[in-house]
């Protein structure tokens, strides 16, 4: 496959002034056409107490707690978002940038490889590294992102032991209703000339009372000169306001189609592609950080799926779905010896491809029981080229066969029990002896009780499942920084949670208590030669509380969330070993969003996000990284009109208005004060 990417910065069409010029013409026309309508709408809207787009909604799915976000309705959001941008707004989910320049996620204090990430059913975390880089997954066309904090089902596939993030393209499809026409053009620019812009078109190609064919297509462009350095930080090698080597440029395109019959039969397909390049921020807390760049970053995601819809049998109504997913990523890593990034001292080329086949079914068993099952087969192939060495080939097969039974003794009580059999087989190991097959069993039980008179939902669940080490954990040397360890054993996760969700007219509230233990946890140690080495040495434990709620106080809408977690590691090979905190895991983090209507139809928004202290290793020393609080502010104004673009929204945002240093990971701060101006048509 070709890996040559033209310099995106030469694409003058997408530069800030050109993009704003393109948008201002239709914006002015729309504003003029809609002025009379705007006055009447604004004057009537002034009678409303509050007008706010939902930040997120708490839910219960499969006796596990969940949160749902609609990306294009997020307050204080970014234009042309990638998955990492949206997941940073998801409560209870901790997103951090690692020293490789990737964005990874942590669920309830766990390591990033223990959560599953799905893009319209395609598992992005079944790869060479067993985790998804959510900074390279565009969300063009995605209607909904759901985050299940626990293990809501064994049917999600292998290696899903804690937390599932799922992006859905057609979350609201209904063949009996004509799909809404979609047309959106947006642009956002910051004070340093960074630009984000995207376009989306979609709607019904054909629609009748019995069937519907919906298509959607679009693309996005991002040209970012770098992350703003918080004002109280200094950085070796630069005095600029932008952090060293943090620029990024990407282009993405997508297309999707779905045909569905009123009886539920459907056929769907999509393809998404991203091409770009990016710098990798050097860590500030170590003397010899990685000095890397990714001159090429690519992602290809595609899927074809079909479903039978409801089919009647003597047992009841059942349905089956078959999907084939394709996920390919290519990255080039360049290593440098000095902070001027002039002399390349090492290269690594990684070509990662996974083909996944999934077959699922639901079958009613009378009026009070449903049997569900799934078979997942993933073929992972990775081609690694280090410097001028010959290319090494790695192959791993991951399989899962699972079934669950839902029993409904009453209308308001659901009981769930399930079993799974998971396996991993290493077929090629870069010329070394392959590991062969490893397998394990899993189980899960759960219950959900709904109390309609109190608008109350109670849930509880417990599970046990294994995660097989990724090819990268077993074999990668990471340009000489790691000593491979092909003897790693699978991790075993034991999880449980109990929660309550209340939804009233004036407020909603969800509180969840959780606990989990991971035996044979894979941890990083340091050898005498200063190379890192992964071993099954520790036991990981985590327990805590999660709470979220929303209400309205006069003309102000509030929504907040907080996570308290106590995560600890202990060396299981030593009797009475001391507990210690894992790296880069905060004990407390949360956010509060407030929104209200000002005069003239302007909405004001404010978000406070706070992060507790973390721990990180610098050489042989475990250091404390202080927590911090950041404040984001924004103003929005919407005008309404007619035609293809029926709405114009202008936004002014200040991210991290107090210019605080708030860290994703030790030595890797988030952006300092950033001003953004945006326009959205449609």
Q: Give the C-level CATH assignment.
A: Mainly Beta
By CATH, the superfamily comes out as: TonB-dependent receptor, beta-barrel domain
Report the radius of gyration as a whole number of Å. 25 Å
Number of E-state strands: 36
Based on the coordinates given, report the CATH architecture: Beta Barrel
**In total, how many domains does the architecture comprise?**
1
Distance between the termini: 37 Å
Tell me what portion of residues adopts beta-strand conformation: over 45%
Average pLDDT, all residues: 85
- Weakly predicted, low-confidence segments: 1-52
Shape assignment: globular
Classify the fold: give the CATH topology: Maltoporin, Chain A
What kind of oligomer do you see? single chain
Q: Helicity level, as a percent range? A: under 10%
Structural class: mainly beta
Please give the count of helices.
3
